[in-house]
Amino acid sequence: MPRSVNAVASRRRRKRIMILxxxxxxxxxxxxxxxxxxxxxxxxxxxxxxxxKKREFRALWIQRINAGARQHGISYSQLMGKLIKSEIGxxxxxxxxxxxxxxxxxxxVIDAVx
Length: 114
Prior knowledge:
The chain is an all-alpha fold. The protein is 74% helix and 0% strand. The chain has one domain: c-terminal domain of poly(a) binding protein (Orthogonal Bundle).
């Protein structure tokens, strides 16, 4: 009985890797074995950095809010504590945007919690 190799599935599997490796430099986009390693590592980085991105943005928002708050004589932690007590439901993303792009509105928020 002749040997049966599922060439269609094998080719599809390799082609999928090579499509993902498009744009890589040199053998990383030409040689299957190298491309496979590179693509797998890239997917690991993508998974990890989807989590890291959230962390980094939250840290950036906190820095921006802190900088804006200190211009008005209040620290970040005091501001957030007073926001929670006064039940103002603005999240850090919105507060950071106000501090950066709308300083008058940010001042109004600070005045409301003082």
